[in-house]
Design brief:
Two copies of one chain form a homodimer. By secondary structure, chain A is of the alpha/beta class. Chain A contains 15 helices and 23 strands. Chain A has helices spanning 40-59, 62-78, 80-91, 95-118, 168-175, 189-205, 222-229, 242-254, 275-280, 282-294, 313-327, 337-351, 380-385, 406-415, 431-444, and strands at 7-9, 12-14, 19-24, 29-36, 125-127, 141-147, 151-154, 180-183, 213-216, 235-239, 261-264, 271-273, 306-310, 332-333, 357-361, 370-371, 374-379, 397-403, 419-425, 445-450, 489-495, 516-518, 521-523. A seven-stranded mixed β-sheet of chain A has the order 15-17-18-13-12-19-20, with helices on both faces. A five-stranded mixed β-sheet of chain A has the order 21-6-5-22-23, with no helix packed on it. In chain A, strands 9-8-7-10-11 form a five-stranded parallel β-sheet, with helices on both faces. In chain A, strand 8, helix 6 and strand 9 form a beta-alpha-beta unit. The two termini of chain A are 48 Å apart. In chain A, 60% of the residues are buried. At the A-B interface, helix 1, helix 4, strand 5, strand 6 and helix 8 of A face helix 1, helix 4, strand 5, strand 6 and helix 8 of B.
């Protein structure tokens, strides 16, 4: 599998008239080959193919849909070395991390294959006819969920595999029966093309309709805008910045037919240190925090951007140890020159906030695009006064906030914006405080952790990688884990259909052997 | 229970400085008393109370929440005669219809009480810790769904009980654990106040937090706008016009924190007459259609506004019999002078479309605000050319569309906008055509009916009263039936929480005895 720089429109390679190059962020060197920028006609062609593929794709059996997802994992595995090498050059992520991410991506595909095969994601509901009911008989009513239609996927820069071309949005859309038109992230076009070719190969091997997947690239915002505005696109999955996510959501809301946008835009992921835990475990908490903060050069949506703790001696010790620890950490190459520049700008902006003070930083060798770990401190009062401190700075920077009393802690917590995660470090003696804070945390975050660190998102059934705005544009969902499929489904009700016209999920004989809801009660297959 | 014209802000009656009156549409007479128009401060007070009530209300046991819903039904029942009398004066709906609607409203409250008590609506998902997993252990991850926060409810004019103050939106929000601030429909303020008092009485009897319910009235759009823009409001339920629903959705999208809007805006509900069914059952289809069209003066979201059939002798017979039948139907009072005026305007606009022809009409005695049943015919070609014909005219008017061949039928179907329902009248010999159309219907509508009529929406578990835009602003949901609760829920994930902090749905001992998803598989209680 070699790189051509083409767009992948269905099974066709399409060249371009304008091109762009990837950059190796570790060296600022241009990487070959040149990549085609999609034109409006290319977007039109890919969306049209996707629309044509929707009915035939969703009509395939769950088994065939599952086999397709598994085959994508196989094709990724067969090309893993080439993909990881290219991803390393394009993102500066270490090979070990990329191998782990490849494993996660393949595991995610297999997890969704299992989900699709089980079939209960379609949530079949049956209210059988009651012909003798008075005063009016009841019709036979059956509900299942089907895909919403073609989905536009915008890959993330920070997970070039697990949240990009074959990542969580793509796999949950394909699992839901929706064709995908993916807009390749311009920071890793080569990785995108290689992964896209693996998906295309799997589609061909499994006899999928041609338009089930297309990959479009481009250097600017145009391709994404055309895609979101295209009438064939019925939903959007996005992982990236607040600016990007809200711009796409605004475009989608202004369409003649508005469509939902599931944008995961990150957050500052507050960590609360309860008094007893802080006193008893000052050093391990400080070290654990710095590990979580600096992991992957802080380039995680769930990076702990603020630590909130009671003021006093224990907090002062925590600050000192965290500062000492961070001084031992080195700056490392960030994902792109743009992300590095935004990080430096964001840190500089924080440094200028009233009432903030720098307390520690990592070392920096001055090589290109290195993100240097940074630690600030402030008070609850200053934090609440200065809105700048509430906004995520993507990278290894965090603010330690001291709080004079529980009342202020409560007010500060209420003042927070929506978060992906909130973490509570607590011991048994902190239980009353935890009980007070928990209902507020539930309103503010998608995931609440106790005595853990927020970086690291398990791909499983119970995960929520989501949360109230501005963490995401839709708090009712998750973009990680099997519940992510729900974003791309909608219910359809069938009234009095003859059995021969019913989909197998709803047919009277239950040929798929599903657990179905009957008259409001879950009923296993006979 | 007597009418005071007050706003109901929590347990307080609040008078106004400006007022408006209801009108009896049958006589155009003003109805006493005067009703207060809510001020911005009133909206603020109600929303603030709702925000304060959210945590205590959602913390109550499912049993107490269910008992509250049941008590609302009891209080409605105790005041049914007064409510029905006032609703009759404000809407001109016949007493029998209103008694049926009251029964439906009470039944809906009890259905949701049962749902809440069962508890599985919270969709508990558990992925237990895997401490020995390599290379990384897995944390204990548990997910449940909680309410999104205070919900603004906009009642519908055409269901003054079942889709208004204590209707489907209110009950599904309260069931989800969300306080409700209801904007009373200005067409039935007295009915709204009486129903609001019943809810408030139930809230008091059941010891609910004060802000769990408030009712705000007003004559214009201001109150609704303040409500949708208020930061405490986290979601909106609306049933009404396209103009109203899209205006609210636009306001909600422009908020600093955008919120979802579930607006059900109606549709033209196409009815397809397949060739064999049309030939075999011409007369019964024509009569059944006119019955469905004229029921309730055509004032249903699911009214059959267009009939599509193959051209030819059978269609001509259908047109003739339908025209003869509609001539026997009389005009009847519509819900409001405004709805009547819009109906007349809409019919006049249809009559001016190129290629349309009036084929029948009911009789009209000239009394105020009477909607006269009207029937038009056109061809598929003209229908596709003239966008006006695709837009709902709320009331007893329908267009009969003749189609030259199956290819045109398919193109016409693809050209349709999103619909609440699509109905197929078919016999066994029409099976191939039905199979061809069904996938398109699934993309276009929330509910597909065979050999039935779309008017009449069962409140049950499998119902979908929803559909692609412009039928609604969110195709992923329903506003009727138990699945309507999902609109007002969001998932929260708990990682490594000690058992004592877990909500009962997720606690290790499963104290509520719920069926829970464990490692992706449904597991009944031990």
């Amino acid at each position: 599998m070699t790189l051509s720089g083409s767009l992948l429109i269905g099974q066709r390679d399409v060249g371009g008239t304008t091109h762009f190059h990837a950059v190796n962020p570790a060296t600022d060197a241009r990487l070959e080959p040149a990549f085609a920028c999609a034109t409006h006609a290319d977007v039109e062609a890919a969306c049209r193919l996707a629309a044509d593929a929707f009915d035939p794709y969703r009509a395939l059996s769950f088994e065939r849909r599952a086999a397709f997802l598994e085959q994508i994992a196989v094709c990724l595995g067969e090309n893993a070395d080439a993909i990881i090498a290219r991803a390393g050059a394009e993102t500066a992520l270490p090979e070990g991390r990329l191998r782990g991410e490849m494993g996660r991506t393949m595991g995610q595909l297999r997890l969704f294959a299992t989900l699709v095969r089980q079939g209960e994601w379609s949530l079949p509901r049956i209210d059988p006819a009651l012909p003798d009911r008075t005063p009016m008989p009841r019709a036979d009513l059956r509900q299942r969920r089907i895909g919403v239609g073609p989905v536009a996927v915008f890959g993330a820069s920070n997970f070039p595999l697990a949240f990009s071309v074959a990542g969580g949005d793509t796999v949950s859309a394909l699992a839901a029966g929706c064709p995908v038109v993916c807009r390749a992230h311009p920071a890793h076009p080569g990785t995108s093309e290689l992964v896209g070719r693996a998906i295309r190969q799997a589609a061909s091997t499994c006899g999928m309709p041609e338009g089930v997947f297309s990959l479009l690239g481009g250097a600017g915002h145009e391709v994404g805008e055309w895609l979101v505005k295209h009438p064939a696109i019925m939903s959007v999955g996005f992982t990236g910045s607040y600016a990007g996510g809200t711009a796409i959501a605004a475009l989608a809301a202004q369409r003649e037919v508005p469509i939902p946008v599931f944008a995961e835009m990150g957050s500052i992921n507050p960590v609360y240190l309860c008094p007893q835990a802080l006193a008893a475990r000052t050093e391990s908490l400080a070290r654990g925090f710095v590990d979580s903060l600096t992991m992957g050069v802080g380039q995680f949506c769930t990076n702990p951007g603020i630590v909130i703790a009671p003021e006093g001696d224990a907090f002062e010790s925590f600050v000192r140890i965290a500062a000492e620890t961070i001084a031992t950490r080195q700056a490392a190459t960030m994902l792109t020159p743009g992300i590095h520049a935004a990080y430096d700008t964001g840190v500089a902006r924080l440094a200028q906030c009233a009432g903030i003070r720098e307390v520690g930083q990592g070392s920096d060798d001055g090589a290109p695009n290195r993100g240097r770990p940074m630690l600030f401190r402030t008070t609850a009062e200053d934090f609440m006064r200065e809105r700048t401190m509430r906004h995520e700075v993507f990278g290894p920077v965090s603010i330690l906030v001291s709080c004079p009393d529980t009342a202020t802690l409560r007010v500060l917590t209420e003042s927070l914006e929506g978060q992906l995660t909130i973490t509570l470090q607590m011991d048994d003696a902190d239980m009353d405080l935890a009980r007070t804070l928990l209902p507020v945390f539930e309103r503010k975050a998608g995931r609440i952790l106790v005595n853990a660190w927020p970086t690291g998102v398990e791909v499983c059934h119970a995960m929520v990688h989501g949360g109230p705005f501005p963490a995401t544009t839709d708090t009712r969902t998750t973009s990680v884990g099997t519940a992510a499929i729900e974003r791309f489904l909608r219910p359809v009700c069938y009234q009095d259909l003859p059995d021969i016209l019913l989909p197998p999920e709803l047919a009277r004989a239950n040929p798929l052997g599903l657990t179905r809801q009957v008259n409001g009660t879950m009923q296993p297959p006979a």
